[in-house]
Amino acid sequence: MAETSPKAEAAKLLPFLALGERADLQAAAAQHVLALTGSGPGRTLLAGQAALLQALVELAVAPPPAPARDAARALVNLAADPGLHKPLLAAEPRLPVRLLGCALDPHWPWAEEAAAVLANLSREPVPCAALTEALAATEPGESGLERLVRALCTPGYNARAPLHYLGPVLSNLSQRPATRAFLLDRNRCVVQRLLTLTQYPDSSVRRGGVVGTLRNCCFEHRHHEWLLGPEVDILPFLLLPLAGPEDFSEEEMERLPIDLQYLPPDKQREPDADIRKMLIETIMLLTATAPGRKQVRDQGAYLILRELHSWEPEPDVRVTCEKLIQVLIGDEPERGLENLLEVQVPEEIERQLQQQDHQEREQCEREQQELELGPGPQAEKAASM
Fold it and tell me: Which residues are CB-neighbours of 40 under 8 A, at least 6 positions away?
């Protein structure tokens, strides 16, 4: 008897995933699909099964007793592979809209899984654009983005789901100008609500997503003065996670913002190296203009960065810290070159800088190997279940 092909075996699962099928059979089929999504060959196999993918989406948004959680976790794993975004969206073009409804439903038990699928999908331009459109098309009154920010910033918004993955979703969305315009709208007070989450203790996923969002917003140099000014006062929220328990002199202490003075002896720095790097990069963006550099210098950022550099165990983060310190202690650029984000770099110089950057990365890799350090967790990496 001829052996059944893996594709045919996968197709046999389809009837058992249908809505209305016996709950025990649905659950067994969903668990089998979830197991398949745990490997590359399994995901590739499922990518060619449009009807099965559509059935999986239907289960993921179905009420109990449907095995919605396993179906949603399978979608998380599938969406972690950018090469599968096209077949997923072809099987169900309204996937971002439907998952968004689940993620923002304060009573949906598997809202975290729905948010994780959206976090994976929105890393790529096409699904990110579709999600942006879905947020813009929500009911009148409170905008979709406002609902997302409220869900992210409200403790206990969903008593059954922590919603940490809304952080990476917002970070991915903030790569789009329309989202940054919403976040930086001075009449909405959105950025201010995000700032306290840079030290959210329970989830590096949420912290990383929020810091990534703030970093993307800081590409808009027209808002730097406002962000650094008293209405937002962003810098202490970026420096505090980088600060340790150092005991500064009285003179140095007076240069620091109030929130960074006399920190307790058990003060811990941000434990995630990728988030530390993003925090430094965010401050670097804020130094793109002359007024921004002055404000960052005046608030004693150098003191925190000096101590961070002495402590930092990760070579890659230490190099990023060195570059920011050089900006703060170096001479001001020539007249006409004050805005570093608008400087036109000659092609030859750009090639030299890229080569230097490549050499620095290789040096960092060598140091990591010598120190036997494994790669740190990626704040914006794909979620998996």
Answer: 81
Tokens for 11, please give them: 């197709």
Residue 223 — left, alpha, or beta (φ > 0 → left; ψ -120 to 50 → alpha)?
alpha
Closest CA to 212 of 122, 310, 325: 122
Task: Concatenate the DSSP letters of all residues of 7-50 into one string.
Answer: HHHHHHTHHHHSTTS-HHHHHHHHHHHHHHTTSHHHHHHHHT-H
Q: What own/partner pairs with CB < 8 Å and gap ≥ 24 does 150-153 have? A: 151/103, 151/104, 151/106, 152/194, 152/197, 152/206, 152/210, 153/193, 153/194, 153/197
Q: For 241-279, what is each residue's pLDDT tens digit?
A: 999 999 899 999 999 999 999 999 999 999 999 999 999
Give the H or E element holding residue 115: helix 111-121
**What backbone phi and psi angles, to 5 degrees, belong to 132?**
-60, -45
Token look-up 């995933």 returns: 17
**Are 124 and 86 within 8 A, CB to CB?**
no
> Which has the closest alpha carbon to 45: 89, 87, 82, 15?
87
Token code pair at residue 61 = 């948004």
- Of 279, 273, 275, 284, the closest CA to residue 311 belongs to 273
List, in order, residues 6 or more apart from 109 with CB less than 8 Å away. 68, 69, 160, 161
Distance (Å, whole) CA 17 – CA 217: 42
Token digits of residue 26: 């649905």
Tokens 């990728």, residue located = 274
Give 80-131 pLDDT, tens digit per residue.
999 999 999 999 999 999 999 999 999 999 999 999 999 999 999 999 998 9
Give residues with Cβ within 8 angstroms of 134, minimum separation 6: 96, 97, 100, 144
Beta carbons within 8 Å of 55's beta carbon, 6+ residues apart: 14, 17, 18
